[in-house]
Write a structure and sequence with these properties.
With about 210 residues, the protein is α/β, with parallel strands linked by helices. It has a single domain, classed as Rossmann fold. The chain has five helices and eight strands; from the N terminus they run E-E-E-H-E-H-E-H-E-E-H-E-H.
Length: about 210
């Protein structure tokens, strides 16, 4: 299996250019899908170089996905201004439209960490039933943002000791949907020292 590297490019977004990282599929032969990964809250330093973003991207690449990790508006070299999860959905949709020109028929996986889960859950809702093969949410901030319902096969992974996005709020959001949550005991928001375990959990779910 080859070991692809992240490649930077600029995509056209509704608020200007989107500074994006692309990680090609690591398998021989054609890719099995496309994956878009959204970063944590930029108001707290979140960018597309975040360790959890890269952990997810590498898992997806090894599975055979073409992976795209944009800096959303106002982050890094991306143009525009941070919009608290509103315009960022338009950014991700614009990137998806661009990627779809190259891969019109491949299954779509959406993933995000923290603030990124808010963006991706909204995009999933916008795209409609059946458009997203899998939604992966790491540490969603359900106490801070108003999340929509998500598909029944959504993977949600949360640290028990999350100091940024309380587990109790995520459980309150998931309960009416009968949505299972994978809880990693003793782990905080950023999964310090547990990224390998996080990667294993996500890998086994795909």
């Amino acid at each position: 299996m080859k070991a692809p590297q992240f490649e930077q490019f600029f995509a056209a977004g509704p608020a200007g250019r989107l500074d994006t990282l692309h990680l090609p599929s690591a398998i021989d032969g054609p890719p099995i899908g496309i994956a878009l990964v959204a970063h944590p809250n930029p108001l707290q330093g979140g960018t597309n170089t975040n360790k959890i973003v890269h952990t997810l991207a590498k898992v997806f690449s090894r599975k055979g996905y073409e992976v795209y990790c944009p800096n959303l508006r106002g982050v890094g070299l991306s143009e525009g201004e941070h919009d608290n999860g509103g315009g960022e959905v338009d950014d991700m949709a614009a990137l998806l439209a661009l990627v779809r020109k190259q891969y019109p028929d491949l299954p779509l996986l959406l993933a995000g960490f923290s603030f990124g889960t808010f963006v991706q859950s909204q995009l999933c809702e916008r795209l409609g039933a059946g458009a997203v093969e899998r939604l992966v949410m790491i540490a969603p901030g359900c106490a801070k943002w108003n999340f929509p319902p998500v598909p029944a096969n959504t993977l949600v992974v949360h640290g028990e000791a999350d100091e940024v996005a309380p587990l109790a709020a995520t459980l309150d959001w998931a309960r009416p949907q009968s949505l299972p949550i994978i809880v990693v005991p003793g782990v905080g928001h950023f999964f310090h020292g547990k990224l390998t375990q996080l990667a294993e959990i996500v890998n086994k779910s795909l």
